[in-house]
Amino acid sequence: RSRFGQNLVDVNVQHSTSSDIPRFDVYNDEVNGAPKWAEWNYGPQKRTLVAGTLSRTLRGSSWQTVASFQSIEESRIRRRFGQDDRITQQESVNVWGLTSVLRGQRQEVAWETGLDGQWNDVGSVAFAENIVTGESRSDLTRYADGGATMATWGGFGSARRSWHRHTVRVGARYSHAAVRATFLDSTWLDLPDRQFDQSKGALTGSASWSAEWSPQVQTLTAISSGFRHPNVDDLGKVREKNGFVLVPNAQLRPEHLYTAEQGLTWSLRPNSDVLVAQVAAFGSLWTDAIVQADATLAGDTVLVVDGDTARIQMNQNIDRAWVRGARLEMSGRLWPKTTCRAVVNWTRGTSLDDAQTPLSHIPPTFGVVEVSRRGDVARWSTSCRYAFRKRAEDFGSGSTDNLQEALPTGTPGWAIWNVEGAVRLTDALEIRLAGLNLLDLHYRTFSSGLSAPGRNIRATLSARF
């Protein structure tokens, strides 16, 4: 970080890599009583980031511009049990980004405006190597083998004004995106559209009003709209999973969201945490929602991938969907240094067609109950984290929610008990201890392919210099 006159320049450079990462959740897959996979690993994940931030204070305002570049590489390596061909899919993504924001305040109105843009360049290759002979051949790529790009840009502005016990915020944004992809090899997948070229934009906005009706009651009311253009992953991915194969769909359209939210905070005593209740609820109308659904390709409903016959699916638009949810949090002070907190979250999502099909990625009801105490030298907490069951008929279609990794009836409910504490040894040295899942419950979180850890103990020593 350096300062040049009124300019402050901040440079951020990062690089990370990893070893191979085994897919433990697929090693229990079987075919005719024998293991399905001899190998299934994510290859080393490499990421490099270079970002520069220029900040400048202007007359009554501030200006900040961030320019960045990221290079990301990843791969998937798999080999069927009893076969000699090891298939490797490699992806590389280069991302250039630029954001410029101007902020200021005029009289009682705080405002900001800016522009941002991003360019993504995606490369995808695949090959099969015979581990006995060393011979290699091309194979089915995960994304477009002729390359894919996505460009996004937008302009935005927002303002905030407060008076008495009320605050109003408004904002607007215009977003535009363009996706292009080229599929060259038709050996493995013969698509009706081999050139993808989409370009769409939309104007969205938001408005909120927060009010303090008394020292004990505050409310927040908000409405907003959203827009999401299908990205390279939505439009052009090929993936086989659990008997389903997702193939590209050049006709996929952007999706739009319209949301209303209402929140309420109540305190037993003004400016006190003796007892506080917070409740919030939202409802979202989702139009042209992108969901994974059964489809056909050249009249076929199935496709052979890696020796398996899989049901063909595509990301498709449904006319409308309805997502709603609520959150309740109660907190209070039991003794001068002891507090308690209880939280519950509820979400539901269904399409608005005749079948009322459940949406994917909707978790079951979940929450936490916690008691904590903070002293001058030590602090500790004990908590119960829980989730209700989710029935199989409430899972989304296809393989997104990993129903095959749950029980035939769905995901059972669970509750685990944790205890955590910390002791400050000196001003610069602290030791932390935690006992997690102390009842050693075997459980699996919604949509996961792996069971959660059993009883475990964790110790951490931290120091400040």
Q: Portion of residues in helices?
A: under 10%
The helix tally amounts to 1
Chain-averaged pLDDT: 92
Number of strands: 29
Structural class: mainly beta
Name the overall outline: globular
- List the uncertain runs: none
* H/E element order: EEEEEEEEEEEEEEEHEEEEEEEEEEEEEE
Describe the main β-sheet briefly.
25 strands, mixed
Radius of gyration: 26 Å
Task: Give a topology summary.
Layout: E1 2-4, E2 7-16, E3 21-22, E4 30-31, E5 34-35, E6 37-42, E7 46-58, E8 61-80, E9 85-106, E10 109-130, E11 136-138, E12 148-163, E13 166-182, E14 195-214, E15 217-228, H1 232-236, E16 239-241, E17 244-247, E18 255-267, E19 275-294, E20 302-305, E21 308-335, E22 338-351, E23 366-374, E24 378-387, E25 390-391, E26 410-411, E27 414-424, E28 429-436, E29 456-463
Parallel strand pairs: 17-21
Antiparallel strand pairs: 1-2, 2-7, 3-6, 4-5, 6-8, 7-8, 8-9, 9-10, 10-11, 10-12, 12-13, 13-14, 14-15, 15-18, 16-17, 18-19, 19-21, 20-21, 21-22, 22-23, 23-24, 24-27, 25-26, 27-28, 28-29
Can you walk me through this structure?
The chain is mainly β and about 475 residues long. The protein is built from 1 helix and 29 strands. It has one helix spanning about 230-235; strands spanning about 1-5, 5-15, 20, 30, 35, 35-40, 45-60, 60-80, 85-105, 110-130, 135-140, 150-165, 165-180, 195-215, 215-230, 240, 245, 255-265, 275-295, 300-305, 310-335, 340-350, 365-375, 380-385, 390, 410, 415-425, 430-435, 455-465. Strand 27 (about 415-425) and strand 28 (about 430-435) form a beta hairpin. The longest helix is centred in the middle third of the chain and has 5 residues, at about 230-235.
